[in-house]
Design brief:
The protein is built from 18 helices and 14 strands. By secondary structure, the protein is of the alpha/beta class. The protein has an 8-stranded mixed beta sheet, with helices on both faces. Helix 9 crosses helix 11. It binds uridine-5'-diphosphate-glucuronic acid (UGA).
Length: about 450
């Protein structure tokens, strides 16, 4: 099938590359010349394991091309996939300007019968708007069908998720267009959900909102566990054995971040508000997450009295491991809090360091090249991302580099029993603290 993809962000690029890998002819369109020439040379503009290799393979086998030219990009396309960004407006609603522009570009530059597939996360009703724009701008000989096909891939495992997803959701106006998109994915052998367009759009928001709810729920339980001296890991293990609950996505931590959950939860509150429904539950999920991200700095302040002039190690800056994405990362709020309290920061992340530096800046923050360097001479260490490198750290790194090791682990990286052999004061999420027999005088 001849497919064009507009937008080479996470969703567009990974989708385009994977569709070419299952033998479709794919052209990815992006306005950024420099980015396009890099991709054409097999270099991914985003950090995603395995993506460079897959781009190169499909470019070399002539199934995948990149262009900035719309006319060239849409030539012969039977399917055009919209995968442009939907950033947040000030009020939390989704900014649809890139979507509208993409629809106008398709009407202007494509030809013949085209199925327009929306992969970007868009508020319920947006595909109606896309259809109206296409109809208003179409030229002689053109006909359009609109299909909603939301994306469920995760950063860091994007290729695996695309090739092995739990479901492919297809919302269409007609059975024919839905079937055509189903056929496009058929080599993947993934179950389909065939539905109407509004339901497909809602499945995406409801899924992300539900996953965010799971995290905030578990984080609240973890906060209560801390007060009652219970252990969240045993609690979630016990909960997860109930098949109705399931054991996945129940990790307590410093809160969810990234480009999706924070944005999509706020957008769904807006979407509900637009039809006069106050989404109390989801508002609480968002509030719980905001508090969770601020929690460590509060705890540290209570423990040390004040943070003025203190040197604090921050291990992990990305919103989760295996990505350099800093969007809504807990580290942003944590470092902002540390700065406000007058602390200085030694920060380390295996991949996101440069990205973080450009966003957070260097005021009161030094970026270093290893966990050991980050810990050196600090008064306390905060763990914010569970990179393997941080989880696998020999615990004597804390005792060798810090004179009074005090650790706040926002990702429960270490086994409590193992810690008991070290003179480390260790606080994690929803688990009893480990405090050495002689408490440190920090
Ligand atoms: C999320 C969804 O998982 C994808 O299905 C969806 O396609 C994507 O959003 C999107 O809408 O594009 P992603 O943001 O890449 O994917 O990352 P996740 O792995 O879901 O993690 C999100 C955040 O939740 C991270 O900060 C992570 O640390 C946190 N998290 C996740 C927890 O705190 N606990 C958990 O048990 C799981």
């Amino acid at each position: 099938m001849n497919i064009s993809v507009i937008g080479t962000g996470y969703v567009g690029l990974v989708t385009g590359v994977c569709l070419s890998d299952i033998n479709h002819e794919v052209t990815c369109i992006d306005i950024d010349e420099a980015k396009v020439s890099k991709m054409q040379a097999g270099i991914s503009p985003i950090y995603e394991p395995g993506l460079d290799e897959l781009i190169l393979k499909n470019v070399q086998e002539n199934r995948l091309t990149f262009t900035t030219n719309h006319l060239e990009g849409f030539a012969g396309a039977e399917v055009v996939i919209i995968a442009v960004g939907t950033p947040q407006n000030q009020d939390g609603s989704a900014d649809l300007s890139y979507i509208k522009q993409a629809a106008r570009d398709i009407a202007q530059h494509s030809s013949g019968d085209v199925i327009v597939v929306t992969k970007s996360t868009v508020p319920v009703g947006t595909n109606d708007l896309i259809r109206d724009i296409l109809e208003d701008n179409k030229q002689d000989g053109q006909s359009f069908e609109v299909v909603s096909n939301p994306e469920f891939l995760r950063e860091g495992s994007a290729i695996y998720d695309t090739m092995n997803g739990d479901r492919i959701v297809i919302g269409s106006q007609t059975e024919e267009s839905g079937e055509k998109i189903k056929k496009m994915y058929s080599p993947l052998n993934i179950p389909y959900v065939m539905t109407d367009i509004h339901s497909a759009e809602m499945i995406k928001y409801a899924s992300n909102a539900y996953l965010a709810t799971k995290i905030s729920f578990v984080n609240e339980i973890s906060n209560i566990c801390e007060k009652l001296k219970a252990n969240i890991e045993d609690v979630t293990y016990g909960m997860g054995l109930d098949e109705r609950i399931g054991n996945r996505f129940l990790n307590a931590g410093i809160g969810y971040g990234g480009s999706c959950f924070p944005k999509d939860t706020k957008a769904l509150v807006q979407i509900a508000g637009n039809v006069d429904h106050k989404f109390d539950l989801l508002e609480s999920v968002i509030n719980v997450n905001n508090k969770q991200q601020a929690k460590q700095v509060e705890q540290l302040k209570d423990r040390l009295g004040n943070l003025q002039g203190k040197l604090i190690a921050v291990l992990g800056l990305a919103f989760k491991p295996n990505t350099d994405d800093m969007r809504e990362a807990a580290s942003l709020r944590v470092i902002e809090g540390l700065r406000r309290e007058g602390a200085n920061v030694q920060a380390y992340d295996p991949i996101a360091k440069e990205n973080a530096k450009s966003i957070i800046g260097t005021e009161q923050v030094t970026y270093v090249d290893s966990t050991r360097e980050a810990l050196r001479g600090t008064d306390a260490a905060l763990i914010l991302t569970e990179w393997d490198e941080i989880k696998d750290l020999e615990l004597d790194a804390f005792t060798l580099e810090m004179s009074n090791p005090l650790v706040y682990d926002g990702r429960n990286c270490y086994d409590l029993e193992r810690l008991k052999g070290y003179p480390i004061e260790y606080h994690s999420i929803g688990r009893p603290p480990v405090v050495p027999a002689v408490a440190h005088q920090v």
